[in-house]
Amino acid sequence: MCCANAIWGLMSPVAKIVIASGAATSLVVTDLRFFGAMILFWLASFFQKPEHVNHRDMAKIFLASLLAIVLNQGFFIFGVGLTSPVNASIITTSMPLLAMGLSALYLHEPITGKKVLGIAVGATGALVLIIGSHPGSGSDTTAGDNIWGDVLVVLAQLSYATYFVLFKHFVSRYSMVTLMKWMFTFAFIATLPFSYNSLLATQWTTFDAHTWGAIAFIVVGGTFLSYSLIVVGQKNLRPTVGGMYNYVQPAVASIAAIYWGLDNFNASKIVAVVLIAGGVYLVTISRSRAQMEAYKAKGNTRN
Fold it and tell me: Which residues form the domain of 34?
């Protein structure tokens, strides 16, 4: 999960460079991600034992694709277009909180003091990092803010958190490659009607080597590799713990931006990274439902 979110953190400034250059719209970049990942996962499936997916599970995989890929990416792309980048970044910190609430309702995972404290500490670090990178955001971004944009970004986080919780046990039925090849196939088919005209209007011959290199990183690293790692993490981590690694994204994005000269280094960034790491640690060491039940079974009544 840490590696996947670190890659997504690197992908953020790379994608911004491609979109800001005017080479491709955000919708085209998203569709390229889906198409490229679909092809790569299908190619990878030829190197493993064929796996049959029954019709009932195929319907579940389609739902998983809608929640984790189509709705998550779709809501976020259109949401960012309607609200400010700062608002969108701040709202993304709600994902671990949503995952914790859904885990408590659906998986009956306990909400412990360490989880709440860890999420609060991590969110504080993420907010320090985001606001510190936009020192004038408090006054100069409100003109572009739109409540519907904020709502769409919240829905993007909710759809991903719902997928992470609802399909926690389901992802163990099939291999990572089988799950991902079908999820990205469904995602590409679902988004193609909306992106078809944009794909035709894109001037592909104007793409230089740097643009193609950036797109290759977005597809191979930011989609194929990262989603592969997400499934591995989903199988082995509790949803709340997995969600906490969401805070790694702004930290890595900030470090990359500093390295590429797109941002400045200051003390607030050190504080933010320490808070994020501390928050992840607290949630990671918090007790799971199984640990709480085993603890009570021993007759120990301490919290």
Answer: 2-297
